[in-house]
From TrEMBL:
This is Dihydrolipoamide dehydrogenase. Residues 360-467 form the Pyridine nucleotide-disulphide oxidoreductase dimerisation domain. NAD(+) binds at residues 196-203, 283. It comes from Agrococcus casei LMG 22410. Binds 1 FAD per subunit. Its EC number is 1.8.1.4.
Length: 476
């Protein structure tokens, strides 16, 4: 408790989406909030992960739009000396691209910092560590020479995660890279080998392919994006292959070595893949080591994630954990929701426990994959009961006009009631199109209610209405 104001004292360790949102919520409720951040406000989400990757993807979309414009009758040519037209090359200036995205990231970090300061949050630059469930030490000097100590009624740990490193494929920051190191490349890599075909691997493989790199994708599973809707992943894999990507299925990388001129990836079956650069996208590890958590009595999982309940509280009443360091779902949107929920709960405000089923998520490949609610696998495994309707975008008039060939809308409706229980959209800008399905899911709307809503004609959302209409059932 702050002795002068009587406000509750809250210390937040880590200023990514989880920590920043928690700090803002605390300030809004009148708490005395101190935010400790060792690198920059916005965290990895803003500085190395979400903002740079999605900015790179915006560039990749522009490059792909130029490539695909020909199909809609747009032609680019320059006249040579003889007056005859020549097709110009589309070139991406990677230095300019990287400058732009790093500057966007830096600016967003500064904007967030200013917003927190305006709200009254005290920001301390340094590395925080728990010394008890209500005491945090911060090393503010280089190599831990200077220390500050903070008493807290509540501590919120939001320290995020870092790229997983394999001992036989250690990143050198030049040829063998993690996703945080990609933005130092001066030129579009001649041949990028991406190890790992989860969301991170798939997004970067697609983006670099679209900006002109030759790409090989080392995928340990039968298909890329193993945790996604199988039909959606199949569309993406087909698009990848059609664009010339070398997808190596059921292939695990055993080691990666840098040579004088490039990299050699040795697969577990002995095959070797040579390229100019290698991106390691083999998952993340939580930044929970050396934080004093176990010593303070906070329970961790075997993977080092902090165990939390649905309001983000750990086994210790005064300690909460939010975002990628907790054992929930590593998404920026979830980190923010947890941050807010944790702070409200700690300060005694009303909260609803977080339901992951309602989280809309998106994979920013081209086309994108957006999902919400129960999925086909849940229906097949009989965890949920529902009917499935798929409408392919090749049947959608607007998609035809726009030259969109790949993608679909898939809707799940509960048997009997017809309530929307989930959906998948594979389409350009699926991240924007999923919102009506998310609204329907959250508010328990039925397919008949959706079918009654007028979509614009012609529009991609028309396929959502079509899927809902097809799910209409006659009531006996
Ligand atoms: C390539 C990539 C793309 C992604 N794209 C998306 C996307 O499009 N949409 C989406 O929702 N999610 C996306 N994610 C996931 C998203 O980045 C994470 O879920 C999000 O960053 C989690 O936020 P956080 O607050 O938990 O942690 P972080 O953003 O990792 O922030 C944690 C902060 O804590 C600081 N910190 C750590 N230890 C200490 C300490 N001891 N003392 C002080 N500070 C400390 C770190 O410096 C860091 O700034 C992506 C992830 C990756 C890898
Ligand atoms: N658009 C987004 O919202 C977005 C983008 C990126 C990441 N994320 C979040 O981050 C989470 C993690 O995604 P991720 O892709 O970073 O990690 P992941 O753990 O989901 O995928 C890593 C993949 O690498 C494979 N792998 C591991 N070792 C390998 C080896 N030696 N050779 C070949 N493959 C190997 C694994 O089998 C796995 O499929 C996502 O679930 C998501 O929550 C979100």
């Amino acid at each position: 408790m702050n002795a002068t104001t009587g406000a509750q004292k809250v210390v937040v360790i880590g200023g990514g989406p989880g920590g920043a949102e928690a700090a803002l919520a605390g300030a809004q409720l009148g708490a005395d909030v101190t935010l400790i951040e060792r690198v920059g406000v916005g965290g990895s989400a803003v500085l190395t992960d979400v903002v740079p990757s999605k900015s790179l993807i915006a560039t990749a979309e522009s490059a792909a739009a130029i490539r695909d414009a020909n199909a809609l009758g747009v032609q680019f040519y320059v006249r040579g000396e003889t007056g005859r037209p020549h097709k110009p090359e589309v070139a991406v200036n990677l230095q300019a691209v990287n400058r732009r995205l790093l500057s966007l990231a830096g600016q967003q970090s500064l904007d967030m910092k200013a917003e927190l300061e305006r709200a009254g949050v005290t920001i301390v630059q340094g590395e925080g560590r728990l010394v008890s469930p209500s005491r945090v030490v911060v090393s503010t000097g280089k190599k831990g020479t200077d220390f500050d100590e903070f008493e807290a009624d509540t501590v919120i740990v939001s320290v995020g995660a870092s790229p997983r490193e394999l001992p036989s494929a250690m990143p050198d920051g030049k040829r063998i890279l993690t996703w945080t190191q990609l933005y130092s490349m001066d030129d579009v890599p001649e041949h990028l080998i991406v190890v790992g075909s989860g969301v991170t691997g798939a997004e970067f493989a697609n983006a670099y392919s679209n900006i002109g790199a030759k790409v090989s994708l080392v995928s340990s599973r039968q298909r890329v994006l193993p945790n996604e809707d199988a039909d959606a992943a199949e569309v993406i894999e087909e698009v990848f292959k059609r664009q010339g990507m070398n997808v190596l299925s059921e292939s695990r990388a055993a080691s990666v070595e840098a040579t004088e001129t490039g990299v050699v990836v040795t697969l577990e079956d002995g095959r070797k893949v040579e390229g100019s650069h290698c991106l390691m996208a083999v998952g993340s590890v939580p930044n929970t080591k050396g934080l004093g958590l176990e010593e303070a009595g906070v329970e961790l999982t075997e993977s080092g994630h902090i165990k939390v309940n649905r309001v983000a509280r750990t086994n210790l009443p005064s300690v909460y954990a939010v975002g990628d360091c907790a054992d929930v779902l590593p998404l920026a949107s979830v980190a923010q929701m947890q941050g807010r929920t944790a702070m409200f709960h700690a300060l005694g405000d009303a909260v609803s426990p977080i339901s992951l089923r309602a989280v809309a998520s998106n994979i920013f490949t081209q086309p994108e994959i957006a999902t919400v609610g129960w999925q086909q696998k849940d229906l097949e495994d009989d965890i949920a009961q529902g009917d499935i309707q798929v409408v392919h975008l090749s049947q959608n008039p607007r998609a035809k006009m726009m030259g969109i060939e790949d993608g679909f809308v898939k809707l799940f409706a509960r048997k009997g009631s017809g309530t929307v229980i989930g959906g998948v959209i594979v389409s350009p800008k699926a991240s924007e199109l999923i919102y009506p399905i998310t609204m329907a899911f959250e508010n328990r709307l039925t397919v008949d209610m959706i079918a009654k809503v007028f979509p614009v004609y012609p529009s991609l959302t028309g396929s959502i209405a079509d899927a809902a209409r097809s799910l209409h059932r006659i009531v006996d």
